[in-house]
Write a structure and sequence with these properties.
The complex is a heterodimer of chains A (287) and B (163).
Chain A lengths: L2 E3 L2 E3 L5 E7 L14 H13 L4 E5 L11 H18 L4 E5 L3 H9 L4 E4 L8 H8 L2 E5 L18 H18 L7 E4 L8 H9 L1 H5 L6 E3 L4 H7 L7 H14 L3 E4 L2 H14 L14
Parallel strand pairs in A: 3-4, 3-10, 4-5, 5-6, 6-7, 7-8, 9-10
Antiparallel strand pairs in A: 1-2
Helix pairs in contact in A: 2-3, 3-4, 6-8, 9-10
Chain B lengths: L1 E5 L17 H13 L4 E5 L2 H11 L9 E5 L17 H15 L2 H5 L3 H6 L5 H11 L5 E8 L6 E7 L1
Parallel strand pairs in B: 1-3, 2-3
Antiparallel strand pairs in B: 1-5, 4-5
Classes of the chains: A alpha/beta (287), B alpha/beta (163).
């Protein structure tokens, strides 16, 4: 099925790089590297140059920290989205927010996609996406509240729980009027999950792909990679790329990433091995 | 009769297509020369690969006794250190003789090509070149060379003969 992300449409064999752009002073990976607006613009320009089709702009770190109210979140992202929209008319702009007030404000200035990392805690989010013709990412968090860490979460079958939650969220989005081509599902590794849960979801990602909804994976430098390899943030790229390779083989469509170039190469290589993408240029033995 | 000569590189086959075409130039020249053959066409090739490449480029079924010919043949694959068959110093002279015969419209010179040496030089087209020479016989030929190059260490030609 064609994927429609706001202004842009993508064929059903396209894989997309969603580059993370933090408007935060405290995100786990970059620790505020793009907190200054100029640095965030530089990051957008760089990832576009590197071939990212989507930027995912977020104003609140996922983990616990200082309370950021709606007004502060808007201050961090709305004018920034407007400026990115003006400078990069063809870029898909995603905003990482769970709040419908913030979603409305960014859609008014040109956001294409609402990336709700927190599983639909704000029931009005789908209505905003529908009203503005925006796309929405439907995640699973196991019912936890935003910005909380998982504590002793258990599931009879984590993949079944994720399948149930994300497909119900997707159906709710379509029922609210979101274009069926604009609904994406994401198991949300590490969100409401321990490392064993995230590893199992990576292993069984084909079951999410089999739903027919396009699958987004957000693996980049996460704790399940760090715990699998006993490596701190900053040393998790190789592990991230291994998880990326398995996700690509399973058929994931969108990759939310810190490192665009490396991820693009892995995804393209895997899809080429899988026979879903031709080699870039083949002459060895064929001249 | 009209005759087109094109290479037999497998890179010309759709099964080996990449996102970008490494043989775009020679493919375009070959397709133009084939378009110039307007009637039924017989494919003359040294082997099954050449036949498959010829039929793919022709885009229609060949006719065995047709007057016009599509000759699928190339020169040596040992024209340099990076060539598929590495460098053989004899390749340049061997291909130069074919090149001269094609440019001058000299079928007799094609018939005289040394098949054993051609095989050593990985010039898979030699039997087809010899068959072309034999079919044309002593008819006068007007020749036009559209392409002659060895971008990957294999000598390719796209040539039109009218006789």
């Amino acid at each position: 099925m064609t994927l429609k992300l706001g202004r842009q449409e993508f064929t059903d064999d396209a894989t997309l790089m969603m580059a993370i752009v933090n408007r935060t002073p405290d995100s786990f990976y970059d620790k505020g590297a793009t907190w200054a607006e100029a640095a965030a613009f530089d990051r957008v320009a760089r990832v576009v140059e590197e071939g990212a089709e989507i930027v995912d702009i977020g104003g609140i770190k996922a983990g616990p920290g200082a309370e950021i109210d709606v007004e502060e979140e808007k201050r961090r992202v709305v004018s920034f989205v407007a400026q990115v929209r003006a400078d990069f008319p063809a870029l898909v702009i995603s905003v990482d927010t769970w709040r419908s007030e913030v979603a409305r404000a960014v859609c008014e200035v040109g956001a294409d996609l609402i990336n709700d990392a927190w599983g639909g805690v704000d029931p009005g989010l789908v209505d905003v996406a529908a009203e503005f013709g925006a796309a929405i990412v439907c995640t699973h968090t196991g019912g936890v509240q935003p910005r909380t860490r998982p504590h002793r979460m258990e599931y009879d079958d984590v993949t079944a729980a994720v399948l149930d939650a994300v497909t119900r969220y997707a159906d709710r989005a379509v029922a609210a009027g979101v274009d069926r081509r604009s609904v994406v599902i994401d198991p949300a590794h590490d969100f409401g999950k321990n490392t064993f849960h995230s590893l199992e979801l990576t292993r069984r990602l084909d079951e999410l792909v089999a739903t027919g909804w396009p699958v987004l994976v957000s693996l980049s430098n996460k704790d399940f990679v760090g715990e699998a390899l006993d490596l701190p943030v900053g040393s998790r790229l190789t592990g991230t790329l291994a998880a990326t390779a398995l996700s690509a083989l399973a058929g994931a469509r969108i990759y939310r990433v810190h490192e665009v170039v490396e991820t693009r190469q892995v995804v393209d290589m895997v899809n080429t091995i899988a026979g879903r993408r031709p080699p870039a240029r083949a002459i060895r033995g064929l001249a | 009769m009209k005759i087109a000569v094109v290479p037999s590189a497998p890179a010309l086959l759709p099964a080996y297509a990449g996102l970008t075409d490494p043989v775009a130039d020679v493919r375009a020249a070959a397709l133009e020369a084939i378009a110039w053959l307007d009637g039924p066409v017989q494919v003359l090739a040294a082997d099954d690969l050449g036949r498959r490449v010829g039929e793919h480029l022709l885009g229609r079924a060949p006719v065995d006794d047709a007057a016009d010919l599509l000759v699928v043949a190339d020169g040596s694959a040992r024209r340099g250190e990076k060539a598929p068959g590495h460098l053989d110093e004899r390749a340049t002279g061997f291909d130069a003789a074919i090149d001269a015969a094609l440019r001058q419209g000299d079928p007799a010179a094609l018939v005289r090509l040394d098949e054993a040496l051609g095989a050593e030089l990985l010039a898979r087209g030699v039997p087809a070149f010899r068959a072309l020479g034999a079919q044309v016989g002593d008819r006068p030929v007007r020749a036009q060379v559209d392409y002659a190059d060895d971008p990957f260490g294999v000598q390719y030609w796209v040539v039109r003969w009218e006789c």
